[in-house]
Amino acid sequence: MFYREAGDFSASYEEDSQTFPIKFDRYRYYLVLFIAIAVIPFVINDYWVNSLFLPFLIYAIAAIGLNILVGYCGQVSLGTGGFMAVGAYACYKFMTAFPDVSMLVHVLLSGLVTAGVGVLFGLPSLRIKGFYLAVATLAAQFFLVWLFNRVPWFYNYSASGQISAPERTFFGIEITGPNTQAWATYLFCLMFVIFSAYVARNLTRGSVGRKWMAIRDMDIAAEIIGVNPLRAKLTAFAVSSFFIGISGALFFAVYLGAVEVGEAFGIQKSFLVLFMIIIGGLGSIFGSFAGAAFLVLLPVALKIVGVDWFGWPTDIVAHLQLVIVGGLIIIFLIAEPHGLAQLWRVAKEKLRLWPFPH
Amino acid sequence: MLDATPTPDAQVETLLEVNNIEVIYNSVILVLKGVSLKVPKGGITALLGGNGAGKTTTLKAISNLLHSERGEVTKGSIKYRNDPVHKLDPAEMVKRGVVQVMEGRHCFEHLTIEENLLTGAYTRSDGKAAIARDLEMVYEYFPRLRERRKSQAGYTSGGEQQMCAIGRALMSRPETILLDEPSMGLAPQLVEQIFEIVKSVNENEGVTFLLAEQNTNVALRFAHYGYILESGRVVMDGPAADLRENQDVKEFYLGMSDEGRKSFRDVRSYRRRKRWLS
Amino acid sequence: MTDGYVTADGRQIGPVVMEMKNITLRFGGVEAIKDISFDIRQGEIRAIIGPNGAGKSSMLNVISGFYVPQEGEVWYKGSRRPAMKPFEVAQQGIARTFQNIALFEGMSVLDNVMTGRLTNMKTGMFWQSIWKGKAEREETANREVAEKIIDFLEIQAIRKTPVSRLSYGLKKRVELARALAAEPSILLLDEPMAGMNVEEKEDMSRFILDVNDEFGTTIALIEHDMGVVMDLSDRVVVMDYGKKIGDGTPSEVRNNQDVIDAYLGVAHD
Amino acid sequence: ELVFPSLSYRTGPYAANGIPFADGYADYFTLLNERDGGIGGEPIRMIECETGYNTEKGVECYESTKGEGALVYQPLSTGITYQLIPKATADGIPVHSMGYGRTSAKDGSVFKNIFNYPTNYWDGASVAIKHLLDLNGGSLEGKKIALVYHNSAYGKEPIRTLEELGKKHGFELSLLPVDHPGQEQKSQWLQIRREKPDNVIMYGWGVMNQVAVQEAANIRYPMDQFIGIWWSGSENDVRPAGDKANGYKALTFHNVGDDFPVFDDIQKYVVDTGKAAGAGDQIGTALYNRGLYAAMLAAEAAKTAQGIHDTKALTPAQMRDGMEALEITEAKMADLGLPNFGPEFTVSCENHGGNGFGAVAQWDAAADSWSLITDYIQSDQDVLAPLVTEDAQAFAAESGIEPSC
Amino acid sequence: MPEQLAFTIEVFLNGLMAGVLYALVALGFVLIYKASGIFNYAQGVMALFAALTLAGIIDGQVPFSHLINAILGTDIHHFGWHVPAFLAILLTMVVMIGLAYAVQRLVFRHLVGQEPIILFMATIGLAYFLEGVGDLMWGSDIKSMDVGLPQGLNTWIDDTTFNAFGYGFFIDNLDIVASIIAALLVIGLVMFAQYTKQGRAMRAVADDHQAALSVGVSLNFIWILVWSLAGFVALVAGIMWGTKSGVQFSLSLIALKALPVLMLGGFTSIPGAIVGGLIIGVGEKLFEFLIGAPFLGGATENWFAYMLALIFLVFRPQGLFGEKIIERV
Ligand SMILES: Nc1ncnc2c1ncn2[C@@H]1O[C@H](COP(=O)(O)OP(=O)(O)OP(=O)(O)O)[C@@H](O)[C@H]1O
Ligand SMILES: Nc1ncnc2c1ncn2[C@@H]1O[C@H](COP(=O)(O)OP(=O)(O)OP(=O)(O)O)[C@@H](O)[C@H]1O
Ligand SMILES: CC(C)C[C@H](N)C(=O)O
Ligand SMILES: [Mg+2]
Ligand SMILES: [Mg+2]
Hints:
- Chain B: One of its GO terms (molecular function) is ATP binding.
- The complex is a heteropentamer.
- Chain D is α/β, with parallel strands linked by helices.
- Helix content of chain D is 43%, strand content 15%.
- The longest helix of chain D has 24 residues, at 286-309.
- Chain E contains 13 helices and no strands.
- The relative contact order of chain E is 0.19.
- Classes of the chains: A mainly alpha, B alpha/beta, C alpha/beta, D alpha/beta, E mainly alpha.
- Chains in contact: A-B, A-C, A-D, A-E, B-C, B-E, C-E, D-E.
- The interface between C and E is small, with 7 and 2 residues.
- One adenosine-5'-triphosphate sits between chains B (25-26, 29, 31, 49, 51-57, 69, 103, 214) and C (165-169, 195).
- Residues 76-79, 100, 154, 205, 231 of chain D line the site of leucine.
């Protein structure tokens, strides 16, 4: 019995509704947090940060955001790319309009702007459901991308329509622009990740979260027992877009530094983030992390194995990569349709019973 | 109507034999813990038991519908006419003459009643004329269906859907029908009617029935033999007439005590569960 | 019948709380309810019976605001109820269960019961996102109510089990728990005992009577088991093909020839 | 060891174009290694990294290769170039965006590490107009010209230039954006059919090119009045339309075909030894030649750098100096087995972008080949120079760079 | 005829034609959705795969040659023969049926009864997989698709309309062929779904696969059948679009043009795919012509198609011809 909860009793309802009711889990969580905050910043270099950690952290925020909408509230959305673009362009406008304000403020404001846009595009969800809604959110996706590409005000009339992040700071430390330190950008994003996960977790365990889940599981029944469906759906759109906006802002300002809307925030991005949460596990914060890690790390890992170790031609590796990622997605789904998070839960259940099979 | 046909004697061929099966859902939840039963040819066998006892699971194990619910028979064997069948495709089971009417009716909502019935004949290859004849036969049994033949099944009432489901099963010319809770949610009159039809199909067409039922009262009136299931085990079995007289069955399944039926209002305590096994 | 009556077993029934006046409901060409009127009194157990497709469930749906009748009025607590969304009806203290179980399959039993408390939880999103303080206090307070009901219905053992793994009967019980958690003034039950055996029906009856007794909850009940209906209810409405064909005490209804013809088949013992 | 990363794309929506370029780039370096033992005796190591034309993968490739001592990046994508401009500048590694990327990077006093010689998008627009001027006896007064462009940063590049030129020469410009990927262009081409512009200029990439050529053929637009930028001028773009593409024109800044001595060497040292990159079936195509040309320019810059710093092994900073001192003369090219392959130009601190020479090639469907139909034409520097300076200054101001040379 | 009106009519007609081409792709989605509730993200990739295979077979390419060469150091690429188009189409169809079989055996058989979003995800995995396999098998360079379909301005229409109205309408021959094929396909598929035993079984499976199993309908068979049909539709779409734009990766992106069509017509309706296609085609082209290009700077088609579909959905949440969503409690 590797994993035990025996002896862990909750004496009060507060304790029982903790995020990690089991001590073992709690300690493991503190350990991960400690490593993330106090160890990793000292050992990473540009490569690790720019190719792995930043995308992982930023996608994790987007995945948490989308998971609130899709996983918790059941409203399938394919507008993520467009909403990230809103975050990015809002951030760009704030950064250039108020150069002296801290990046923290810019990013949070971008989240708020995105939340507003999200609510607007969430309105049709009252009538349109399921995959129909998914396809309808594509309208947001395509429209927003077109808009940012089309209206020069958004990119400050630059010649090419690209936006580039000027140098901005957070408590005097450079966060954007070419001269940033690996640890600084890492910690800056990590801060938002922890914030997002914390807020998302609190919202989903309380009454708002239950409203969302009720709508997801059976919207008619939810309405009849007293959930205002429009409010519930729109709050989900708002919160979700808030996080997605933050991730878009970070994606542009901290990670890439320059983006072109159609390329960086195209429909592919919407799909990518959706894949993350489905593979990771719908309705699970941990799943958002797992999914983001899976889709950010796996291709890089496969590339390293194929190209650097075996020395195969890059195109063959790239094609094999598609085959393997596709194959793995299918294998995972067959093994456990509810994602990596569920796989992890089942594994824990089995460990708890181990060595007995049932 | 309390005199069902006497139990078929031991000479009658056993059509279906379930031997000590174990069923696990999601590879962790053990639901059936060794269920055995025999269904004689031409009989009506009832499977009784409380909520979650495993009746539905047993029927699905026989018809092989478990697979699509992530359930699995892990032990024991199921034999139909002495052939092991638990690895077969559900469609193959139907071809061999075993068809299940599922709990909760499960009509094809968007198909008309007639299309529903015709789908029942999917596995048959004995020609259009034969199918048309059987369609006629089903309409004979359920005149109500003839009236609604062109309506979409999704918009018919619960009772009509139940008839449709049974009729659809008949359309495959089955040898054995597994009937899961035919009475659920039906008005009392309809319950009687449906059991009457089961009886006449059994007598006229020689179809064998295995039925799972909560409505013990009716079930034991029409069945020849009964099994009582509790938390995944068979706890009692015997000819229906015997079961009806059994004291425990009377008390827990028929709601009768020595003084006859007692009022629901008079049950004073609900902490009085007695189980054969626990 | 101005201000209530006293039942055979001595319970005091109060004034009319809900009154349906000339309700007519159509779906396209189908008239599911035809000009039906009846009332429900405070503290009463009111049964609605009738053959399949008579329009019973539709009537409950009208009460909970899910179907909007083409004609007729609903009066609640002495005044005419304006057009309302179902969730507003729920917020007025009307809770219900469903004929085809409508639980939230993705959540645990406890969470399902807690959804019944949603109409009582008012903390804003901001405080919830911080959790500590206001949100946590509210959660705990409501949790206590939910736990009490879980205790009452004897489902403590499955509190943390995902609903999708429960058998039919347990689900029905959880649904009842969810409805009770709202501490409703009127509770609507749509075939709460379908698919149960006698023993389980006895248990369920006990719960219903206790709820009615302990919390004084008014109950409207649809059921096909005549034994249950006749034993439990104070008054019975009988529907057939959308029309009301009988209304009165169980014994009156039992002996009504129309009801016997349309529904009971034989005079029930 | 000299490290040349190749950020290629052999998958994704633009693979068909990425492959020949990457092959050319790789084969030239392979040739140098096999034949000459590298550059100046120092062997070359080429690291190929697949970007799929995706900016994020581009960043990953950049980060994973820069530590290996990468000398110069040639990402073949305007998007990735924009990404790399600040990063590479901070890391002191040069980027060569040859005929793409940020046009104002031509101003070396601001963009120290970015090079876009021998020509850029604005030059392209101007060269096309010059060619049209030639055809129309020196005047475009009252003519209508339509620009069909990829609706992205890249496609929008020439708009400003064309507008300026329109003012100068008196032609009317109409703009027809095509969204990625550009499979459906009915609207655009119906509009062209209606408006009957005298000429169509196209800034396209990927499938958009093929569809445009096909649609032009469908509406029977005269092919010789249809000019693509150099990225709309590969065999891939015209072959699907078959004979009907005959006469289509495209700009180029290097020669076409495989009729150069260097190809014999490639056959001998690379193909016959089985060392050809990719499937080895792209040799001599327009984009292959362009990849090869890019590699040649990189190698020459490396040679120059070796000369300046008197060392065989180079650092990125030394490579940068080499690029800034690069001089391409006819003699040099002939020497390399590429006589008359591209324009002559000299790079300097002020000018990282060459002199803006480009030529026009025309497709001969029967012969299945391109041929140059003009000499190298120089772009209208009077119009362009101020535009470049303006944009560069704006960038300098925005990012606090002190222009200096 | 006034010029502006003539132009508008021309745009309208071409919108119809474009719509037919979208509908060809949408049909594949509908078939699979109808029979299994699976939203098949891989439909676009299937079209690409079919087209690649067809082009490869016609050309006598050796499958996986690049991979084989890389591993064995050989240098093979072509068999050196050319396969006649109709034979190649047959062979490709065999490949698509094989694919349908494999997809059913290896993927969906194990996912029976899962939620729609999970099945959707599986098709995404499938899309990746197929894209990779397609590339490995046939290479990612561009291929031209030549099965002898006519293409270009239809002169007869041009002349006739010119004589009649003074303005010759442009209609592409390929579009005309596509329309005929699409009409035949739709009629065939509707007949199949409505009047054959298999078609009925297919609809039954879509309604309730458990119940279908219980009456002896073999899910395996029905699904393989439907995926083969979808493969066939993908092949047709691949030929059409491949002829238009060459065969290459971008072909798989035409799925994005089919989505608004699909949701406007309803995921479950075969005629809906056609009607939806026509509405979207006409709508987006007219909007671009009348408003987008003159006032909004152009390139509005992509988002307008979705907006149009969205507007329709607000009034009919199940699409124009979709099966009514039965909402009962
Ligand atoms: N898909 C499933 N996954 C997990 N557990 C299941 C599943 N289906 C049924 N069970 C469990 O199996 C047990 C037996 O269920 P089954 O449906 O066979 O009961 P039943 O006798 O038919 O009951 P009822 O009268 O309520 O229909 C129950 O405890 C139920 O919780
Ligand atoms: N949403 C709807 N659309 C169309 N018809 C409906 C709808 N809801 C109910 N009906 C029809 O209204 C009639 C009454 O249905 P209702 O569900 O109220 O019956 P019921 O009395 O509850 O029957 P049962 O005892 O079978 O549950 C039926 O004919 C049914 O088909
Ligand atoms: C070859 C490429 C550099 C051209 C492409 N259109 C781009 O600018 O991104
Ligand atoms: Mg059951
Ligand atoms: Mg009902």
